[in-house]
User: Fold this.
Amino acid sequence: MSTLGTIGLVNGGGDAPGLNAVTRAVVRTTYYQYGGKVLGSFDGFDGFLWPEKSKELTPRDVRGILPRGGTILGTSSRGNPFRYKVLEDGQLVEHDYSQLAIDNMKKMGVEALVVVGGDGTQRIALDLHRRGVALVGVPKTIDNDLSATDVTFGFDTALHTVTDAIDKLHTTGESHGRVMILEVMGRDAGWIALHGGVAGGAEIILIPEIPFRIEQILARIVARKAAGHRFSVVVVAEGCSVQDDDPFWLAHKASPQFIEKKSIGNLLGALIPLAGNHEVRVTVLGHLQRGGSPSPFDRLLGTRLGVAAVDLVAQKQFGRMVCLKGDTISSCTLEEAVGRMKIVPADCDTVRAARAIGISFGAD
Ligand code: F6P
Assistant:
């Protein structure tokens, strides 16, 4: 069995349930299997810009963290060492601290990095690798929008949160006979909305990949009322958009109340009552989807990916990202990892199944 020296561990981008499972697996594998050490960098790459923001992680340090959401290392969505934002005289100024980070890694005796993050973080990892840094990536995001892996840890736990929210909205929506709108995360992909909406039994699911028409949403609400249903649940992904030529939207979009509308969920919540006697309430689930104890699936996937990442380091297979393909942990190049975003195919079997059971996507 080969031995390892010191591995640096970085969490970057938005946090996700399961990050601590990766950390625990990286530390335990490095210690127990390879006799190496792990140096954790706090708040993204900060630990390699300011060494005092790094700490050796031993198996003792990762005891009891498996069920904990978030990350004991902290993470950052703004810590790109190539474009590090610093507040100077009230202005955010970008600095290229990449060489400082690389030099510090060498001084700190870090022989390789494990970089855990989404597409943005993996792009940073690729840039560092191209500058000669030995590293391996681990995919992470609740959005599940990384094309090189079948699923990312964090996604399953987010689905638990969304499904539970929809279950709750059903009961209160039925009590009052209301249209309940739930806006969920996912950035520019609709995976959370699609899977959560089907699992939660939503009547209407709106995803960025299928721009919608408000008249079709209204028609579905009216049809449900005519069929005797007191309420409707609409799940809308944050990255959704109305079809450009939607007459209802064109007729109202100039209204002052809509110009500043940032949330698609609140926009819909304001538009629907204009079309008829519909009482509407909006819930923006927000960062609840990023929190909470990781599901068993995410704990297991995080553990498997963490172990595989250390194995790749030991095999000196750098410039690669571990991934899940089917039931098997595999790896791909970082170029493949960041090549394109994984969006919902409009004709995928889950969309077809949703339509088959009567779910509307707001567009025929
Ligand atoms: O990428 C994960 C994610 O939660 C997205 O779904 C969401 O749009 C974004 O991060 C929110 O970012 P922040 O935590 O910086 O507000």
Summary: The chain has a mean pLDDT of 96. The pocket of 6-O-phosphono-beta-D-fructofuranose is lined by residues 14, 77, 118, 141-143, 185-187, 238, 290 (CB under 6 Å). The first helix runs from residue 19 to 34.
